[in-house]
Every structure is written in C-alpha cells, then in structure tokens.
Write a structure and sequence with these properties.
Blueprint: E1 11-21, E2 24-33, E3 44-49, E4 62-64, H1 73-81, E5 83-90, H2 99-102, H3 105-121, E6 126-132, H4 135-150, E7 154-160, H5 169-176, E8 186-191, H6 199-206, E9 210-216, H7 241-254, E10 260-262
Parallel strand pairs: 3-5, 3-6, 6-7, 7-8, 8-9, 9-10
Antiparallel strand pairs: 1-2, 1-4, 2-5
Length: about 260
C-alpha cells in the first residue's frame, strides 16, 4: 500500500486528454496521493471504467479532500492505494457510450492510448482494472483485448455491481489464460439488495471468481417493480462505500476476500 489513510489524507486531481484515434481525443482524470514524490516508485494504479453512459465528473484540479457524506471513490483509492485514472468519453461520442460501444475496438483503443500515457508516467505500476456497473463490460472486454500488450503490468480485474453480460465467455476465457499465460485474477463485488442489477442474475457466474457478497439490512429489499441505481442505493453500496473500497484494496494486496454483512 502506497500510503496510510489518515485525517490529513488528500489527493491531487488533474484532468487531461489524449489523441486516442485520428481526430479523436479521449478525456481522463488522474487522482494521485498528494504524498507521491517519485512517480517511478509507484507500484499500483487503478484504471476506473464507470457505468451508465461513461460520463465522469471533470477534474477539480488541485488538492482534494473527502467531504462528509458519500466517500469519493477516486479519492479513496488515490489516498489509500496511490494512483487512479478514470477514463471518460471520446470526443466522437459526446452524448455517452452505449453497451455495444463498450465491446468494440474503438473503445479498447481509446483506453489503451490513455494507459500508454499513464504507464510512461508510472512505469513500475501494476494495473488493476476496476469496472463499475456498465463499466464492468468495459473492464472485462478491454482487459481481455489488452492483456498481451500490458503483460505483467496487468495485475487483476475488479467488477463492482456488474451485469451478467460482463461475464462474456470470450473475455473470461482470455483472462483465465491458456498454456503459457498466467490467469488474471478477478474479484466480483455485488450487493445482495442491488435493485438496479439484480444479485441473483450474476451470482452463478460470480462464484467462479473471487467473490464478495455485500449485505446491509439498512437497505430495502429488492423490488422487481422499481429500480434504484442512484446515490445512496445498494447498487453503489450506499453508506458502506469505504468498507467496500477497502475490501477491494485488501484483496489486491493479499488475495483474500472479506465478508461484508451489516445488521441494523
């Protein structure tokens, strides 16, 4: 772990863009622990691929700190792990990306170009690809496509609140590896009360990987009539964000999963 979380913890956020395809620029935001003095010494980096239409909040350039309330994912991983890069939209998809786009070669190329920049800046860093919700499709497809390019730099894949489509057999087989290829470890984290992407739809596939099932009795039981993917919901691990993020970091560092069950 690069730094220890403390009351004085903070991170530096920077927005940037790169020409990822001819005439196309992809924006991204880098969040880095403020105590990093030598980028070449950084050992871990998270590549964050978000859900919905792939829109990410723009950078608030400069030093950031956690605010009361919901824990900022970008900041938490920067403070407690080192560096996180969140990839946003390419300029030819200003209205957002579809689930089909997430499975295509243009999307993969955009992300690879961003990571070329990041790996030049942090050459010793090993990559954890972290997908959230729809972003899990991106995480699985891009990791499968780029694993030979990234080689030993690709450390593992984490899927938070994913859909069943993220377990595409072609992607999973590529990550499982063949003779001569090491398996890329995968962690799946899902809330049992997720009322956006149902737990029951992914449970069977998730059990083939390292798996953390989260349960918090303060969240309502899933209701098939309604859907809740918003802030505070079980889909985003509302009220327990920091516990989930720390469990992910612990798994990256130790390979061990932690039970996350909370009663009122």
């Amino acid at each position: 772990m690069w730094c220890i979380h403390s009351a004085n913890a903070a991170w530096i956020e920077t927005g940037a863009e790169v020409e990822s395809r001819p005439g196309v620029k992809t924006m991204y935001v880098v969040s880095a622990d403020k105590n990093i003095t030598d980028p070449k010494a950084v050992k871990n980096m998270v590549l964050l691929l978000t859900g919905a239409a792939g829109v990410i909040p723009p950078a608030t350039n400069g030093i950031r700190e956690q605010k009361p309330g919901r824990v900022a994912l970008r900041g938490y991983f920067a403070e407690n792990f080192g560096v996180l890069v969140a990839v946003g939209l390419p300029s030819d998809q200003p209205g957002g990306i579809t689930t089909q786009w997430r499975e295509g070669s243009e999307h993969t190329q955009d992300i690879i170009k961003v990571m070329e920049v990041m790996l030049k800046q942090y050459p010793a860093a090993r990559i954890t690809v972290l997908g959230f919700s729809n972003g899990c499709r991106s995480a699985a497809s891009v990791s499968a496509a780029a694993r030979k390019r990234w080689g030993e730099s690709l450390q593992n894949v984490v899927m938070l609140s994913c859909s069943k489509e993220a377990f595409n057999e072609r992607w999973i087989s590529a990550l499982d590896g063949t003779k001569g290829d090491k398996k890329v470890p995968m962690l799946v984290v899902h809330h049992k009360r997720d009322n956006c992407l149902a737990f029951e739809n992914i449970e069977g596939q998730a059990k083939w990987h390292d798996f953390i099932a989260v349960d918090d009795s303060k969240q309502p039981r899933p209701n098939p009539v309604t859907m809740d993917c918003g802030n505070g919901s079980a889909h985003v691990f509302g009220g327990k964000e920091d516990k989930v993020y720390q469990a992910v970091i612990d798994w990256i560092n130790t390979g061990k999963t932690t039970e996350l069950k909370y009663e009122k």
